Every structure is written in structure tokens, then in C-alpha cells.
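= Protein in question =
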Amino acid sequence: MKQKINVLVVEDNEYYNNMIFNALQQSTHFVQQKMKYQLVLHSFVDLSDCMRKIESREFIDNDVVAFVDYNVGNEISGAQIIRQLKKENSNTLAILLSQTRAIEERSTQNNYDFCVIKDTFAPALCRLYLDQFIENKFS
């Protein structure tokens, strides 16, 4: 049985969410058949739904790669989502998506592993982070 990797795109802007999701889906679709893993992509525009899934421990037994918008609104912050994911599953790689470079500086407030600035290169960079995670995991 193949090991499962859950890939989460948590972005309240539906257009940007679809852009990231499609880039991740395209990059991994053709190699998945040959590999020892199964990629399961999840897209969240509704952040309450995302938190319910995390708190239900749906992602606890598998690796998680999460692409989380910093300013997700609706009284839930990107930092809260990342903190909850890492609390539930230590095998979580968290990539913070931000529109400003000011957030790139790591602080004790942020528990992310990498930061991607939301520009024209962001979907490709997200795809590279996912590919690198997979390569490190299975090589």
C-alpha cells in the first residue's frame, strides 16, 4: 500500500487558491503512478471547514504539506492553522503564503518552514517545495 501525503491549499481568495492547487496537481500527476506514495490534494477556501478537518484528526496518520495564506480572515489566521496542523501532526511541512516580504522574517510567532511571496512565480515555487519534500521523503 502506498503512503499517503496530504497536500493542503488554504487560501481564501478562490482565484489564487485555484492557481496554486492547479500548479501542484499538474506537477505531481504524471509521477505519482511510479512512486511509493499517493498524493491527496485538499483545497480550502472556507477556513472554518479547514479547521474542522484538522481538529477531526483526519490528517494525523500521514505526511502533510500545507500551503497557508498569512491573511486568511474570518477570525482565523494562517499562523493559527499552521500551529494546529503541527500540533496534530509533527510530519507537517508548512509553507506560508504572503503578499508582503515583511512577513518573511521568522519570529517566535510564526511556525512555518518556508515563506512564499504571492507573485507571478509563487505557483511554480510552491510546486518546487512539494517536489523537494517528495524527493527528500522517498529517495
Summary: The radius of gyration is 14 Å. The first helix runs from residue 14 to 29. The chain is about 40% helix and 25% strand. The beta strands are 3-10, 37-44, 63-69, 92-98, 114-117.
